[in-house]
Design goal:
The chain is α+β, with helices and mostly antiparallel strands. The protein has a domain at about 35-110: Alpha-Beta Plaits (2-Layer Sandwich), CATH 3.30.70. About 20% of the residues lie in helices and about 10% in strands. It is built from four helices and four strands, in the order αβαββαβα. The protein has helices spanning about 5-10, 50, 75-85, 100-110; strands at about 35-40, 55-60, 65-70, 90-95. A hairpin with a 6-residue loop joins strand 2 (about 55-60) and strand 3 (about 65-70). The termini are far apart.
Length: about 130
């Protein structure tokens, strides 16, 4: 049986209410009532959250700050443990509706990389030993 590939272009489009929003759990089940948010401006890059809940948090390579990359990556207990171990309390439960506004506010801030030398900083030279 040969299927015409042109059928993909003639298929009806799903109604707007049936289109996936990205907030649905990947593997099925109930959607969390709250989302996980990392205030990257307050994050010190300790990596505790990424060690406790590695399916949810990742350390962003350019800035060295933690970021929540998935909302359904780890169990609620793991996420709460990551929040409790955060030394600067920068991980929060927020509503899904608040995420776009929080991301927009974060994008407006100018964050400096953590733990990386500043380009303006001069390199220290040690005196040479006498020969």
């Amino acid at each position: 049986m040969v299927v015409d590939p042109g059928l993909a272009f003639s298929a009806a489009v799903a109604p707007a209410e049936a289109v996936a929003t990205g907030l649905e759990p990947v593997l099925g089940g109930a959607l969390r009532q709250k989302a996980v948010w990392v205030d990257e401006a307050a994050c010190i890059g300790c990596r505790y959250c990424a060690h406790v809940a590695p399916n949810t948090f990742v350390v962003e390579p350019d800035l060295g700050r933690s970021r929540a990359i998935r909302q359904d990556g780890d169990r609620d207990e793991r996420l709460q443990e990551a929040m409790d171990t955060c030394p600067v309390d920068c991980i929060h439960w927020v509503s899904f509706e608040d995420l776009p506004g929080l991301e927009r506010r974060l994008a407006e801030q100018e964050l400096q990389p953590l733990g990386l030398p500043s380009p303006a900083r001069t390199r220290r030279t040690l005196p040479r030993a006498a020969a």
